Automatic annotation (TrEMBL):
It catalyses: shikimate + ATP = 3-phosphoshikimate + ADP + H(+). InterPro entries: P-loop_NTPase, Shikimate/glucono_kinase, Shikimate_kinase/TSH1. The keyword Membrane does not apply. Its EC number is 2.7.1.71. It comes from Capnocytophaga leadbetteri. Monomer. The gene is aroK. This is Shikimate kinase. Gene3D superfamilies: P-loop containing nucleotide triphosphate hydrolases.
Length: 170
C-alpha cells in the first residue's frame, strides 16, 4: 500500500508522513528529499540554477519512479506536485491512497510565518501580504487537491490528534 500526503506547504506532510510511516511500520519518502538526492542539489538550488520548468519535469519523473516501487510507503509530496503535468492522474492511476491535509488559509499563514525565511517561494512576500498569497494559491490548487482519495480538515489539531485522525482512514 502506498499512502500519499498532499497539501499546501506548511501543512505538515513531512512531519506527519514520518509519524504515519512509523505507526504503520512502513518506509517514508519525502519527494523533495528524493529529488534532491537524485539531482545531487537542493530543491531551492534547482529552482535557482535550472528553473521551475526543469524542476517540474524532474519532479514528474521521480514521482513516477517512486510510485513504481514495489514497497509499501508513505510518500510526502511538495505542495505543488499534484498541480503540474500529469501528476494527479498518475497518482490516481497508481492505486495509492491520497490524503489532502486541508487547512484554512489563516492557519497556514500562522504556521508559515514562523518558517517564511526558509521557504524560497515566500521569502520575498511581506508578512501583511502572506495570507492573500496563500488564499490565491489555494484557489488555484484546490481543484487538484480535491481529487485526493480522502480530504481531512486539520485545523486546531495537535500533532498527536492529527496522526490519530490519519490512522482512522486505515
Amino acid at each position: 500500500m502506498k499512502i500519499i500526503l498532499i497539501g499546501y506547504m506548511g501543512s505538515g506532510k513531512s512531519t506527519l508522513g514520518r509519524a504515519l510511516a512509523t505507526a504503520k511500520n512502513i518506509s517514508f519518502v519525502d519527494l523533495d528529499v528524493y529529488i534532491a538526492e537524485r539531482e545531487k542539489c537542493s530543491v531551492p538550488d534547482i529552482f535557482k540554477n535550472k528553473g521551475e520548468i526543469y524542476f517540474r519535469k524532474k519532479e514528474a519523473l521521480y514521482l513516477q519512479e517512486v510510485l513504481q516501487k514495489e514497497e509499501d510507503m508513505v510518500l510526502s509530496l511538495g505542495g505543488g506536485t499534484p498541480c503540474f503535468g500529469n501528476n494527479m492522474p498518475l497518482i490516481k492511476a497508481s492505486g495509492a491512497v491520497s490524503i489532502y491535509l486541508k487547512y484554512q488559509p489563516q492557519t497556514l499563514t500562522q504556521r508559515l510565518l514562523q518558517e517564511k525565511d526558509h521557504r524560497p517561494l515566500l521569502a520575498e512576500i511581506k508578512e501583511i501580504d502572506l495570507e492573500e498569497f496563500i488564499r490565491k494559491h489555494l484557489f488555484d490548487r484546490n481543484p487538484y487537491y480535491a481529487q485526493a482519495t480522502h480530504i481531512i480538515a486539520m485545523d486546531g489539531l495537535t500533532p498527536d490528534q492529527s496522526l490519530q485522525k490519519l490512522l482512522t482512514v486505515f
